[in-house]
Amino acid sequence: MLSGIVRSALMNNRRWLPAHAALRAMSSTGPTSPYTTLSVTRPAQSITQVELYRPEKRNAMNTAFWSEMVDCFNEIAADPHCRVVVFCGAGKIFTAGIDLMDMASNILQPEGDDTARISWNLRKKISKYQETFSVLEKSPKPVVVAVHGACIGGGVDLITACDIRLCTQDAWFQVKEVDIGLAADVGTLQRLPKVIGSRSLVNELALTGRKMYADEAKSSGLVSRVFADREAMMAAALEMAGEIAARSPVAVQGTKINLLYARDHSVPEALDYMATWNMSMLQTQDLMKSAQAAMEKKSPKTITFSKL
Amino acid sequence: MLSGIVRSALMNNRRWLPAHAALRAMSSTGPTSPYTTLSVTRPAQSITQVELYRPEKRNAMNTAFWSEMVDCFNEIAADPHCRVVVFCGAGKIFTAGIDLMDMASNILQPEGDDTARISWNLRKKISKYQETFSVLEKSPKPVVVAVHGACIGGGVDLITACDIRLCTQDAWFQVKEVDIGLAADVGTLQRLPKVIGSRSLVNELALTGRKMYADEAKSSGLVSRVFADREAMMAAALEMAGEIAARSPVAVQGTKINLLYARDHSVPEALDYMATWNMSMLQTQDLMKSAQAAMEKKSPKTITFSKL
Amino acid sequence: MLSGIVRSALMNNRRWLPAHAALRAMSSTGPTSPYTTLSVTRPAQSITQVELYRPEKRNAMNTAFWSEMVDCFNEIAADPHCRVVVFCGAGKIFTAGIDLMDMASNILQPEGDDTARISWNLRKKISKYQETFSVLEKSPKPVVVAVHGACIGGGVDLITACDIRLCTQDAWFQVKEVDIGLAADVGTLQRLPKVIGSRSLVNELALTGRKMYADEAKSSGLVSRVFADREAMMAAALEMAGEIAARSPVAVQGTKINLLYARDHSVPEALDYMATWNMSMLQTQDLMKSAQAAMEKKSPKTITFSKL
Amino acid sequence: MLSGIVRSALMNNRRWLPAHAALRAMSSTGPTSPYTTLSVTRPAQSITQVELYRPEKRNAMNTAFWSEMVDCFNEIAADPHCRVVVFCGAGKIFTAGIDLMDMASNILQPEGDDTARISWNLRKKISKYQETFSVLEKSPKPVVVAVHGACIGGGVDLITACDIRLCTQDAWFQVKEVDIGLAADVGTLQRLPKVIGSRSLVNELALTGRKMYADEAKSSGLVSRVFADREAMMAAALEMAGEIAARSPVAVQGTKINLLYARDHSVPEALDYMATWNMSMLQTQDLMKSAQAAMEKKSPKTITFSKL
Amino acid sequence: MLSGIVRSALMNNRRWLPAHAALRAMSSTGPTSPYTTLSVTRPAQSITQVELYRPEKRNAMNTAFWSEMVDCFNEIAADPHCRVVVFCGAGKIFTAGIDLMDMASNILQPEGDDTARISWNLRKKISKYQETFSVLEKSPKPVVVAVHGACIGGGVDLITACDIRLCTQDAWFQVKEVDIGLAADVGTLQRLPKVIGSRSLVNELALTGRKMYADEAKSSGLVSRVFADREAMMAAALEMAGEIAARSPVAVQGTKINLLYARDHSVPEALDYMATWNMSMLQTQDLMKSAQAAMEKKSPKTITFSKL
Amino acid sequence: MLSGIVRSALMNNRRWLPAHAALRAMSSTGPTSPYTTLSVTRPAQSITQVELYRPEKRNAMNTAFWSEMVDCFNEIAADPHCRVVVFCGAGKIFTAGIDLMDMASNILQPEGDDTARISWNLRKKISKYQETFSVLEKSPKPVVVAVHGACIGGGVDLITACDIRLCTQDAWFQVKEVDIGLAADVGTLQRLPKVIGSRSLVNELALTGRKMYADEAKSSGLVSRVFADREAMMAAALEMAGEIAARSPVAVQGTKINLLYARDHSVPEALDYMATWNMSMLQTQDLMKSAQAAMEKKSPKTITFSKL
């Protein structure tokens, strides 16, 4: 009988393994092929875990990272077996931000025959780097990000493009770009003011480059929960992801899409879009299944939803 | 002489009673004709109190509710004797949200000869249900909402469309829609992120359906004050309403209209609208009356303003 | 040798003194020519301090104030020697707001042959008064505002147009306009909801005119830091200004401009603008200088940036 | 056998007669109950004809007109038997515009205790009058307007809110409002620039009040066709309406809704909305029916579509 | 008695002469002090004529021109005696566009210590040059522009910011910027597509720099009237200006402001603004005066309106 | 010596051949590898010609077409040797529009376990098909489209996304979608109203599906030039493309990008973006080269610009 369960589990595993990337189950011991900077695993059904995986380099963002993120999250967006993502960093800290050594030539030695052409090429590059974090939003699967230790520079750009932010008590955050002579151009200046409630604080962080610690991150709303250590945080992140994964993917992904739409539109515009969205999405079997379970006081985890 | 005062008061009372709805004074013992789900009273001059009144059904939102709200607040908008609204729930909790039993057929069995036509009809219904809460904003009279006990699902849609939110220490809030298989489509996803300061928290609530208690509601800014119990809260709500009602209705209602305009526009757009609004509104006698009272250190309550 | 240093310092001083305004160094003992309501000093290199200076009138905003602010900040915007502004109030409180006595005729006795023409003139006046605070945003130099004691009416309009807000423990804030019969029309209704995280609180303040004290100002995010007294606050404000002034002006001013752009646009729009902005701004020598200092663990204060 | 056909026709007629308004078939000899200014008929299946019907007053827009339009087009929007509207004027001209005699008190003697309150009431009135023409857009049924003779003042506001404009060779158009001392406030200034291609012409018409004749109306794009006389125009209008009525109402009404959405949004915004709209609307049987007919080279008129 | 009339006329003249610029009446024989590139005259009551006046340089736009335009139109905006502007060019052609010789150093040799600082300074310059034409829109007085001969480069930027465009049969237009290696950055690319009806034509003109002659300018809607020669055009321009000047300035200027608002907003937004605008502007005596004259079939020219 | 020139030309040719697609020079005899529906050639230096190449199927748009277009124009966008595109159709007509036979299963038999999931998949498909034409805009190289014979359905979606439209005297255009039961969802409803000047005509075409012939296409502004036959049109298209290719690519591509930006934004927004764009782009050597050539009355064709 045991072997039957195992076999079934394996088949299940096989079924939810995306075709084009090798996902390693349950543990992360290094980057996952085809990635050199990311480790992608499936810690539980319907949950994909993405880990920044250059611990020896403090997860600094090198040239490979910027394009691997796009590939990784495009794949996640298309993967019907993934309903939610947990994003974290391997090693001692979440990320040291941009890998200046590796990236310097990209930024400091731009190509082009004159200033206009250098500008033209720089704009293409900036747009491409922006896409690295925008894919987190473009994928309709919610992303729970779990930050421990330092989250510096590009790390802040990254986490503000995630949906739910958690951190450990020892975490700190730093909008570092101003210290190296540039206005942060891959998302922080655009998203940070829309995810926390104090504009004075946003300006202080962005203009002075000072560190913000876990307590202030919590009271300002940057993170919604703080944990004693990485282990506790990861357990909570996976539990939260489990809650999300247990709910109707039609409901969950429609919620993410409409929350992002609402951020960028007026309330009347967003209500109109919502009605136009739900005129079809309410015609899902998930609604009947969920409503019935709710009335019967059953957990959503007991329901089987079709893939989306 | 006393009788003269009484008579005059009665006549005054009569004068500020709206023509088309019977308002019962000072106590709420059940729905007010012509409503079956709302109790409408006038606890003090210029203050209208609207109470969800299906206590035996935990103030669940049934079919009647959705249209009664529209009638009720359209009437309030047109009633020159009302300057501010206090909104609350009768019985043990604020509201259990949508009355699934009563509403199921509306949502689960939509009409139409094919998917397009079902969608067409669903869109009309969603838009109509959205209007149930949008009337709270379209009426220029500020709405102070006082929440005790549970505020679930549609209840969150409702309170985010109010202007000022108060709650009791035992209150809790739940974005329930994701649990029954749909993206919240009557206002929560559109308004919640614009009334509280932590986007991470908004996403957590909307994607997991977890409860949020009074303390977090206060620290996140959903409510601006928490009270020990319903009695203390209602006393404070009425006092606050009294403060608002005592001020110039030209100032108060212009403030509400322009605060909502500002929410949905850029700062320069909103400044332009404000200037265009006030070019006439500054030509009110209320300004002179108020300025004079302010200089004489008199309370606004001593001033008599013309009806608006 | 000492004399050489002094001479050089004096020459430096002379060099960074703007041509068209007399800046008094290090102390503020009264309004600075050509101003009657503002004192403008240079407490440290690259830092301009602007002080409301009618202490005997509780820094009330009289007719002169509204235009002096525009002149002052236009000059600051054009002054290459200023990289950051500290804004504060002289005397016992920050400001009592509008000087009703002085301004009454402007507002209460508008000119014009009929209502339309009076409205026309009022609109021009309101737009002009709005400009008084909008110049704080239009100048690309960050403004750190330090509030002690009372900040009333127009004071709230003023500080919400600044970038970073600090206050003392004894500070309080009051949206006073509703008390004198008008909707606040020079910025508070437009900016306050975008700088703090609780809309319920914004509405409460704007509709009731109640005072908000330092603790609530901090927890709501209106200010990002609270200090024991004015002295401690001013020291911290100058230190913070020093941090900002030490960083690349290309980075700092580009950050301010793009943060304001992001406030008024969707995230995708703001990202596009950012990329178009930085395609030239990344071609600054400041980037190389700053990156090198960062790698060498040197303070930004050791770097000399070209004027901007 | 003939009687059978007649009976069937009558029954058909009965079926498409809306419940709440008496529609007279095939001829228009006066206003239709409950209207005093409009004649509503059904000249052919699925086509509703609305006629301005105060010929003895040159179809001037009196007090009744402004609310009857709203009732009429709300009814049309809800009437499943109407798929397209032909709008025209009875008598010698299309319309002389506002009935100044009848409306003067509304505009020239507004109520209110002070300027602010008069303004408040005027704003409500203007908004209400704007709604009179906006209903033409809010109804998803396309409106073909046929203009003969004069189309003055409010007439231009009206026709610019219609979808397709036709006129006779003797027609002329006049933005009259500037002649009576006001900026046109019920639609012309907002819609005229968006329906014709020359902004110089729009400004000329609106600022000088000069007449524009049929040829210029055609060359500027205000109308898309000009006819020799009213008879020829009405025949063509009905034929065009017949073409529209023969097509899938899902396609036709979705087209109108998305064309209006595109007018008020950027191309990327409008494309997104369109995709969200059609994700359900493509699931209509009409698509299969229409595609099959198209492949079989059959006229759309041979297809029976479900009501919408 | 005649002398009395003359004296009174002179005094009237004197009264409507703006304080800070010497306007020469009825003829234009050269630039008007304090301008070196513009001739400003008053050809008839309430009409200001502005003439490009460097005929020997084909009215090329030199350094002085860009700031004189701003001064000139700010003055016009504030001048209560001006109700409408006629804009034209002295000499053989309307304008040859930018004076490359005079302007070259501004554009080709920008200042700044590095690319970022050069960019910073260039942006300020471009914004300043854009303002040169935007003042035409910011002044609420309508501008009728009359073009003869060539209208090249900056000339197209200029005329697209005017309200009504007229030209002679020999006029031609050329978007010249692409020929000298830059994207037109002072208005043409932004305004031209919004003033003519063919986007294909706009693109053709802007991308190839080809000339467009009067016939195509008329058929595309760039101009609304074409005249045989300059004399006929100027007579018509002044007659048209006379028609505009004869109408209520409240109506005329409110029309211009709302037409421009409508260009840049959705129809519902623009309707809302219009209602908020007219709630005060309808309270003008001009309405009664105009309505009465209209009913009495009198010309607007017989009415005396208060200054605005 | 001649052979030297030839060899050099060949080498030049080789140099501007993109690495990843085989371009056949000067003639188009069939689809170009890797495409099966498009023929891509280089008729002259810096000009890429893209031809719909399924003449035996009347260039109907089959499954392959929708993705080949994206690949093709992404490649064009990245190809520094291409400065302008000429787009046309092989065979008897431009295109018959969608290939219903080939595409039917995509649209008529969408996949998904319930209506919500079918909708989800349809939305992804529609978005993907929209991208097929949006790439024409996203590539900064201008596209001149030359239409002969019929341009039906998807053909109209395609050409409205091009920059300049030309046609032959025998061309006709048809918004066909309404005939097959759907609202046109890949661009026509969004772009057609923004490229022609008569909204009445747009609505007529979209709601009735009637044909529009060359004359009306010209007078309405859809095309800016009409030619006697395909040969004359192609010669003119290539000449026009030659004019564009001869000008500074910095100027040309910046013009296209800013014209599209202006379409989707208000004038002040677009001016701000333009200034921010040109602050770097004016620092091009092209400006000096072009200005010099212009002053020397030399053709732009004599200038050599660096690649972009």
TrEMBL record, chains A, B, C, D, E, F:
Q: Where in the cell is it found?
A: Peroxisome
Q: Look up the record and give one Gene Ontology term from the biological process aspect.
A: fatty acid beta-oxidation
Which superkingdom heads the taxonomic lineage of this protein's source?
Eukaryota
What InterPro entries does the record point to? Answer: ClpP/crotonase-like_dom_sf, Ech1-like, Enoyl-CoA_hydra/iso, Enoyl-CoA_hydra_C
- Name of the molecule in the record: Delta(3,5)-Delta(2,4)-dienoyl-CoA isomerase, mitochondrial
Pfam families per UniProt: ECH_1 (PF00378)
Classification via CDD domains: crotonase-like
UniProt GO MF annotations: delta(3,5)-delta(2,4)-dienoyl-CoA isomerase activity
Q: In which pathway does it act?
A: Lipid metabolism; fatty acid beta-oxidation
Q: Quick check: keyword Oxidoreductase in the entry?
A: no
